[in-house]
Backbone:
């Protein structure tokens, strides 16, 4: 290798890394970047994800009142007025109002204004060319109606112009305030995070999540290890059968698996009937009580992770040189000491892998919970990922809050990153990975 | 402690590997199990250590029957062919392992480990991991680990197979030294006859799961019971001639060779026989003349090695001191030392 230049080796390394880098960018950085962007907006179904327009709605007026806008302005915004101007005359013409009548309105009422439709209509009835049918009169009148209520303005300037036109002597800053509030599109904001911190629900969900992840993870690793080690010591004929049996939760489609659990725990289900026969309390275990709901949630996810752990651990176990196991037995180690001193140290890397991988996937997984307890009873088994999913993508009220959901997801990503670093430190990953075994 | 194996039979998946073996290893002796690859040496060793269980038979340590005991309870030390050190423990922890699992107290462990490390000359390596040791150092660590809890029996499975020639020579005498110093009963598995002869008190030669002969190295060499044993010991190896019995002589008619059978008189004329001649018993001096041509010559420094092709195509090997050097193709008239030649029946039994 002395003859080849160091750059050559580096380029080769780079070439090896490229696919990984592309995948990393495409499937990790890009989603994270997008999530971060969404997290700092107030996007929702209402705002849409493209731009919006400016509308003053009844709801907006109510919330403006709450924000302390003065009653007079509110009243003015709520009202329609009738102003006879050139624009109104044009509008009447296009609405098909009798031309003679329009001319009369222009001549006699030009630049007058009325604050109610009845006053304006009364005035119109005095004109000689007035239409005979009331409906036509109303059509003519409506052409001169001016109101900002429920009118969509494409730009802020138009909205402000309309407001200034409507309001006589508005208080200082009122026009700007109303225009800002009337925007229907999304805006940049840090409100999502502030709201999350204040909301008392947040902390309950955090608690639920920690509880869920810690217990499920412990179940994953311990049961996975236990299964792997027991099947390892079992005669090979039996172990094959058991391996397949324990793999079922992993290879069954999620929906089917969830349905199985429902059948297992619901009213008139398997456990229900057994409990009934034994005279134990029988109810819908999946949703009937907090304790049983948690048990179901942890078992449902626990077995999936445990079979995942078992595959990895079994593979790692088979890779331990059998002479080391023989040596330990000859050295006098009991089964338990053999597990503790020989097998577990060999399992350090797979345990790290399963622990960190499972922590991260448990943190971000919600499918099984969604399909079984759906976070209930109440929101007792709602975890962060499920809440984020419901907030952003699956909401009963129909208003999906993408921004808030993204903020929740972003927090999840941050927590995941921090945890990964902690795990790597904890297991001294660098030591394990320090030197490549093949030298270039 | 004396070890006796009685009527030992072992079958793997229906294939018999050891059939009805009997073997006694005397107290404090070092016994070599010597034989070709696959003959069941490791199997025998692992059975003594309890890693494999006997299908039939009895294993006695002294007058204690250990046939049914698991390896943990047998107090044997084993050095595996690939050493089987624990890679995640340093040398100290590796050696201390048998004591750690026995729950000895820390101070005792420390003292014992250091003592055995001194004996095996690895005191300065205690902090290292197995991955940071040379083959010979690993081998000593394995030996130290096997010896540390003062086992009743030391079992070595081809411990020198992975070492280079020089280190192998060193470790040979090292292991023998330690075995003699500790007075432990030891079994050495090897397929290297030089190793077996130089290190052990007695050698058991195995063939296809049976012990063919068990003797001291000298007796085994000078008095082999079968042609297999004769062929297995000695370097350069013995050469064989095929012939028939004729008037109390071993006769190869085409080359008019006649070697008197001496003590083995009375063999029916015409019986197929084999004559084994060690290279040092064939040369310019002796009593039975044989003519041939040098077919191969190799100088080994102090000695020269020759193959002499006889007129019928059979070959006799000879080893001669350097000095008068014969050239390839040179015709020679050399002699067999008839009293040192071995006579075997056609199926390999010594007569
Ligand atoms: N676990 C096993 N399962 C099946 N057959 C085995 C097993 N272990 C050994 N054997 C067979 O038993 C025979 C003896 O094996 P053993 O390991 O004792 O040979 P050995 O004399 O130590 O050979 P070597 O010098 O190559 O190590 C071989 O034919 C081998 O194939
Ligand atoms: Mg072997």
Residues:
């Amino acid at each position: 290798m002395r003859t080849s230049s160091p750059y050559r080796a580096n380029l080769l390394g780079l070439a090896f890394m490229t696919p990984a880098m592309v995948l990393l960018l495409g499937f990790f950085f890009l989603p994270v970047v997008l999530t971060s962007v969404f997290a700092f907006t107030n996007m929702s179904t209402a705002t849409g994800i493209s731009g919006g327009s400016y509308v003053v709605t009844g709801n907006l007026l109510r919330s403006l009142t709450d924000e302390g806008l003065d009653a007079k302005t509110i009243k003015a915004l709520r009202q329609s007025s009738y102003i006879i101007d050139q624009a109104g005359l044009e509008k009447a013409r296009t609405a098909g109002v009798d031309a003679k009548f329009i001319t009369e309105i222009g001549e006699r009422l030009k630049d007058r204004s009325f604050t109610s439709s009845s006053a304006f209509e009364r005035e119109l009835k005095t004109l000689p060319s007035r239409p005979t049918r009331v409906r036509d009169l109303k059509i003519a009148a409506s052409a001169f109606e001016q109101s900002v209520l429920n009118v969509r303005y494409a730009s802020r300037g138009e909205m402000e112009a309309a407001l200034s036109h409507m309001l006589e002597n508005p208080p200082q800053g009122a026009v700007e305030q109303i225009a800002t509030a009337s925007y229907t599109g999304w805006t940049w904001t840090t409100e999502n995070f502030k709201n999350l911190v204040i909301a008392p629900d947040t902390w309950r969900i955090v608690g639920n999540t920690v509880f869920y992840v810690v217990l499920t993870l412990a179940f994953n690793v311990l049961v996975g290890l236990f299964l792997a080690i027991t099947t390892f010591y079992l005669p090979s004929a039996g172990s094959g059968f058991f391996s397949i049996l324990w793999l079922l939760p992993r290879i069954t489609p999620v929906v089917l698996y969830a349905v199985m659990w429902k059948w297992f725990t619901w009213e008139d289900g398997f456990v229900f009937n057994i409990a009934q026969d034994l005279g134990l309390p029988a109810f819908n275990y999946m949703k009937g009580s907090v304790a049983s709901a948690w048990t179901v949630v942890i078992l449902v996810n626990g077995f999936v992770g445990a079979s995942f752990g078992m595959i990895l651990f079994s593979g790692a176990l088979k890779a331990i040189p059998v002479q080391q196991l023989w040596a330990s037995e000859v050295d006098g180690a009991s089964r338990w000491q053999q597990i503790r001193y020989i097998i577990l140290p060999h399992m350090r890397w797979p345990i790290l892998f399963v622990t960190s991988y499972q922590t991260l996937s448990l943190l971000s997984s919600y499918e099984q919970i969604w399909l079984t307890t759906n976070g209930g009873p109440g929101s007792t088994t709602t975890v962060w990922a499920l809440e984020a999913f419901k907030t952003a993508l699956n909401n009963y009220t129909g208003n999906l809050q993408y921004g808030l959901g993204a903020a929740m997801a972003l927090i999840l990503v941050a927590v995941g990153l921090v945890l990964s670093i902690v795990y790597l430190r904890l297991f001294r990953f660098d030591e394990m990975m320090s030197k490549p075994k093949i030298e270039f | 402690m004396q070890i006796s194996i009685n009527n030992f039979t072992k079958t793997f998946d229906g294939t018999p590997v050891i059939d009805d073996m009997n073997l006694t290893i005397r107290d404090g002796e070092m016994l070599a199990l010597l034989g070709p690859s696959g003959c069941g040496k490791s199997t025998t060793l692992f059975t003594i250590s309890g890693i494999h269980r006997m299908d039939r038979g009895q294993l006695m340590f002294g007058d204690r029957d250990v046939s049914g005991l698991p390896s943990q309870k047998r107090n044997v030390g084993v050095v595996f062919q690939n050493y089987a050190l624990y890679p995640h423990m340093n040398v100290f922890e590796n050696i201390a392992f048998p004591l750690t699992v026995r729950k000895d107290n820390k101070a005792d462990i420390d003292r014992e480990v250091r003592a055995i490390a001194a004996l095996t000359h690895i005191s300065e390596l205690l902090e290292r991991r197995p991955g940071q040791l040379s083959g010979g150092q690993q081998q000593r660590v394995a030996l130290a680990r096997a010896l540390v809890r003062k086992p009743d029996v030391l079992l070595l499975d081809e411990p020198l197979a992975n070492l280079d020639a020089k280190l192998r020579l060193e470790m040979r005498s090292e292991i023998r030294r330690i075995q003699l110093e500790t007075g432990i009963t030891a079994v050495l598995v090897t397929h290297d006859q030089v190793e077996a002869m130089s290190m052990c008190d007695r050698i058991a030669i195995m063939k296809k799961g049976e012990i063919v002969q068990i003797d001291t190295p000298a007796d085994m060499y000078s008095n082999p019971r079968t042609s297999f044993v004769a062929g297995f010991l000695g370097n350069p190896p013995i050469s064989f001639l095929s012939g028939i019995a004729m008037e109390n002589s071993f006769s190869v008619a085409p080359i008019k060779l006649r070697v008197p059978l001496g003590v083995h008189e009375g063999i029916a004329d015409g019986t197929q026989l084999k004559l084994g001649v060690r290279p040092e018993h064939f040369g310019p001096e002796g009593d039975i003349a044989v003519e041939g041509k040098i077919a191969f010559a190799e100088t080994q420094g102090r000695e020269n090695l020759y193959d002499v092709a006889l007129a019928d195509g059979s070959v006799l090997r000879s080893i001669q001191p350097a000095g008068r050097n014969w050239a390839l193709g040179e015709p020679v008239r050399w002699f067999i030392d008839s009293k040192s030649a071995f006579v075997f029946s056609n199926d390999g039994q010594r007569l």
In short: Chain A has a mean pLDDT of 81. The beta strands of chain A are 81-83, 113-114, 145-146. The CA atoms of residues 428 and 434 of chain A lie 10 Å apart. The longest strand of chain A covers residues 81-83.
